[in-house]
Design goal:
heterodimer, A: alpha/beta, Rossmann fold, four-stranded antiparallel β-sheet, globular, B: mainly alpha, two-stranded antiparallel ribbon, 2 strands, 1% strand
């Protein structure tokens, strides 16, 4: 489909008898800021795991840039430009912050000869330059989140999936991360944001999809979502 | 490029030194003991490629070592193959086994992988015990070829092991400093994150298990000519599993020099203990030293050195 960067078509994922995703369909346009929300256990992270390749899908198709990537291993999806950050930061603990960025640079960005800033410039742009030679164990919570984003940026994403990058951060820190994501988007990177902090998703997203119990229950602009009775019911109950 | 040439020159110099030592004709026991220590340099280095760089702890070292040894026994009995062929074939057969356990890593991680490799050793030993052609449970005598290229046969095998140790260390050093070594370190730290950062984790794991298996088989291939009598209990000895793990841990697992330091120190201590106290003291020494290191210096001697230098 022209004009679509990521197309998830009827995606189904089961864990034993539990239906984590039930024929979920989403389409993300190039350059879009896309929000994905839903109550705990609604399948957001499962959807992201299927899109990034960490989990195999049980049904449906995933297309990226018009290519069917449904059964492609995760590292090859990363090389194509689908890069995710993790909800709980997963840094490479034996390496310095700078070396952490070296891994995606070497394995993803260079694999498709993507041009761009080097590791030190990325750290500078995100405010981690002074920590370049520290091990991740010496970072604060927000620095750890920034490392997670910096490492994703080093892979030269076309589509960046930010999985709860702001959970547990203070008001000012949330704004800090939001500014980084806005800046990346301005550089042409499509962003899917998964977030529980409504203030952040509502401000950031151009379009939002709501999941509840593995099903897509709503889609629209932040304003439409805020006024949608089905969304309110999913979050607050009757 | 210049550094690669330099490294190769150092390797050649070590082999030349080995040949020189071989011509010195010192006490024959020293060659006999030196062979064992060098064999452990190969084993510890090979183990470390998978266990140290990649973080997959292999308890099945005896299986790979014995597979190299028994491949040699088979080829000696069937076609009287020359030593270089034995070494290559022993390495290749063990490499195939390595590739096999590489696919295990698809489903088994951490402790479960280690338990599976332990089981592998038991299964393989049972197969060998029931295979009469290579001696079965009684074992088999191997006659050394007459007229080694120089010295007596043990001195010759000593020099061969010097060369094998140099090759193993060069391979490990090359892997460590390439994108493969960095990728393995990433997957050791966090396999899911590594895969999501573009590291082809399965391919790297298969590479590591295969190369590690190859070198372990290579270490075992000259074993029949060294001992001249091969039987399952000595070829599948627990010593190999324990030492392969203890030596890199004591030296330091993150660098190629760690297993070398560990093998030389621990190997020498074991040889001394065998002569001065008793051969039963071997594993006791390893146990005590390993516990001490795990508690006091979990990053091995290399970690201690780094700490002292203030990094």
């Amino acid at each position: 489909m022209a004009g679509t960067l990521l197309e998830v078509d009827g995606l189904t994922k089961r864990f034993g008898g539990f239906m984590a995703l039930n024929r979920v369909t989403i389409a993300v346009k190039p350059g879009e800021r896309f929000g994905l929300i839903g109550p705990n256990g609604s399948g957001k992270t499962t959807l992201i795991n299927c899109v990034s390749g960490s989990l195999p899908a049980d049904g449906g198709r995933i297309l990226f840039d018009g290519r069917d990537i449904t059964s492609m291993p995760a590292h090859r999806r990363t090389r194509l430009g689908i890069v995710r950050s993790f909800q709980i930061p997963k840094p490479f603990t034996s390496m310095t912050v700078l070396e952490n960025l070296g891994i995606p640079l070497e394995n993803a960005a260079h694999a498709r000869a993507a041009e761009g800033a080097d590791a030190m410039e990325i750290l500078g742009s995100i405010g981690l330059a002074s920590k370049a030679h520290l091990r991740p164990a010496g970072l604060t919570q927000i620095e750890m989140r920034k490392l997670e984003l910096a490492r994703a940026m080093a892979a030269r994403p076309k589509l960046l999936i930010s999985d709860e990058a702001m959970a547990g951060l203070s008001h000012a820190e949330v704004d800090d991360i939001l500014a980084i994501l806005f800046r990346l988007n301005a550089q042409g990177i499509t962003i899917i944001m998964i977030e529980h902090i409504m203030r952040a998703v509502m401000r950031f997203s151009e379009r939002i999809v709501v999941l509840d119990a593995g099903e897509r229950i709503a889609e629209g602009t932040p304003d439409e979502i805020a006024r949608n009775p089905a969304v309110e019911k999913a979050y607050l109950g009757e | 490029m210049r550094r690669t040439v330099g490294t190769l020159l150092v390797g050649l110099a070590v082999i030349a030194a080995g040949v020189l030592v071989a011509t010195l004709r010192v006490n024959p026991y020293l060659y006999f003991a030196g062979y064992v220590i060098l064999q452990y340099v190969v084993i510890a280095t090979a183990w470390n490629i998978l266990g140290g760089y990649g973080g997959y702890v292999n308890f099945g070292t005896p299986a790979f070592f014995a597979l190299g040894a028994y491949t040699a026994v088979f080829l000696i009995r069937s076609i009287k193959a020359p030593l270089p062929v034995l070494i290559l074939a022993g390495g290749l057969v063990a490499a195939l086994l390595g590739l096999g356990i590489g696919y295990l890593t698809l489903r088994l991680r951490g402790t479960f992988f280690s338990i599976a490799t332990l089981a592998l050793s038991v299964v393989l030993q049972t197969v060998i015990i029931n295979w009469e052609y290579v001696g079965g449970s009684r074992g088999i005598s191997v006659i050394r070829p007459s007229g080694p290229p120089f010295g007596n046969y043990v001195v010759f095998l000593f020099t061969v092991m010097v060369a094998l140790a140099v090759i193993a260390v060069l391979v490990a050093r090359f892997i460590e400093r390439s994108w493969i070594g960095r990728g393995l370190a990433a997957l050791r730290d966090n396999e899911e994150a590594a895969e999501c950062m573009g590291v082809p984790t399965l391919r790297l794991k298969l590479f590591a298990t295969t190369v590690s298996g190859f070198l372990l088989g290579v270490a075992g291939a000259p074993f029949p000519y060294y001992v001249t009598f091969v039987e399952p209990n000595s070829a599948f000895a627990l010593d190999y599993a324990v030492n392969a793990l203890a030596m890199p841990m004591i030296g330091g697992t993150t660098s190629w020099i760690g297993p070398v330091i560990g093998a030389v120190l621990l190997g020498t201590a074991q040889q001394l203990a065998t002569v001065t106290i008793s051969s039963e003291m071997n594993l006791f020494i390893v146990g005590v030293v390993l516990v001490a290191f795990v508690v006091l210096a979990p990053e091995g001697i290399l970690g201690l050195v780094r700490k002292l230098r203030g990094h």
